[in-house]
Amino acid sequence: MGNLSNEFAACEEGDKQSPVNIKFSEVEEDQNVPEVQFQYEQATPSVINNGHSIQFNLPAEKKSNFITMDGAKYELNQFHFHTPSEHQLNGENLPMEMHLVHQSANDELAVITLMIEEGTENKELSSIWGELPTETMEKDIKMKESIELMKLIPESSSTFYYSGSLTTPPCSEGVKWIVFENPIEMSKEQIEEFKQIFPNNNRPIQSLNKREVIQNK
After folding, report:
1. Comparing C-alpha atoms, which of 201, 203, 171, 208 is closest to residue 2?
2. In CATH, which superfamily holds the domain spanning 6-22+35-216?
3. Which of 52, 80, 87, 102 is catalytic?
């Protein structure tokens, strides 16, 4: 990707790139990792097929979905999906991965990552899954259905933290990644519905380059 434009040089030259393989045996445990606090409310997003994922944008005029971490507030701008998962757990990909992308007032990014395994139907996501656009779009469209994102967050708070990058160009670094250890479930049918549009939209695993992955249980 780095040869597409000078703006995308980090994709090839950066040393803190994402995604990564999280090896449990090499993870450092630290109870002092900043705790993430969620403030998610029911919201009706807009949706766009941007050519590399299905992205759901949160209303700009109503900033009622955010997280706080280490004293900073990060507002939820959008969430999207990858198949198979971009991150690996002990060298294994899961069927899908969900990224909830947050931005602070200082333009710092924090991504909450939910790994997705095949299981029972995800009723919360089913409300918006029926409106997945199959063709690339120029502009997002408001959805008819709402979603309560807090119901997606795993009850177990075990998470992995590391400093990485965006996984699509320009691959900007300095992104705070918070990866939940426990996956959420989607049915085989829900996963296949997404794969019909994007059979494979994950970025290959990047080298950790001496970065630490820290776990907070």
Report:
1. 171
2. Alpha carbonic anhydrase (3.10.200.10)
3. 52
